Every structure is written in structure tokens, then in C-alpha cells.
Amino acid sequence: MHCIFCKCNSSSSTSREHIIPESFGNKEHTLPPGVVCDRCNNYIARKVEKPLLDSPYFKEQRFKMSIPSKRNKIPMIRGIHLL
């Protein structure tokens, strides 16, 4: 099997690529191991998903919908609490 991104042999890859990031609440929609190699999967997580998830918009949306991260933490947002 070859990685869909880098085309390298990915037969020994063990990670599953989440079609929708796990930090958006997705636990089910994944590609089987080997479709994306471990190296590309880690790259996408660090360089694409993390900056997106750390952006103010997505932090706010995850906070509003109480969507926890992989470490089961809901992101904190800055703001004013009005009574």
C-alpha cells in the first residue's frame, strides 16, 4: 500500500487518519492504517490541524459546543462573563 500524500510505501503504518479531526469530536470517520503513512499523518496533525484548532474561531466553536480535545479538555476562551 502507498500513502495517498507522499506515495511512499505505507504498509507498516499503524496510525489512522481522521477524515474530520478527532478534536472536532470525530471518533468514527477514519481511514484504515496504511492509507496515510505515519509520517504524513503526524505532519498533517502538527502543521495543518493544530494551527487550525488553535485559531480563535475554532476554539470558540469547540468551547460553545463543549467538544473536548484528545486529552479530554474543552478549550478555554477569553472574554467577559455578563450576568
Structure, described:
With 83 residues, the protein is mostly helical. Helices cover 30% and strands 5% of the residues. The chain has helices at 38-53, 56-64; strands at residues 17-18, 30-31. The protein has a two-stranded antiparallel sheet with strand order 1-2.
What are the low-pLDDT stretches, counting only 5+ consecutive residues below 50? none
| N-to-C order of helices and strands | EEHH
Our count of helices gives 2
Largest sheet: 2 strands, antiparallel
Strand arrangement across the biggest beta sheet = 1-2
Report the C-alpha radius of gyration, rounded.
Answer: 16 Å
DSSP E strands, number: 2
Structural class: mainly alpha
Instruction: Determine the N-to-C terminus distance.
Output: 57 Å
Overall geometry comes to: elongated
Provide mean pLDDT, rounded: 88
Strand content: under 5%
What's the helical proportion of residues? 25-40%
Keywords:
83 residues, two-stranded antiparallel sheet
What's the short story on this structure?
The protein has 83 residues and is mainly α. The chain has helices spanning 38-53, 56-64; strands at residues 17-18, 30-31.
What topology does this entry show?
Blueprint lengths: L16 E2 L11 E2 L6 H16 L2 H9 L19
Antiparallel strand pairs: 1-2
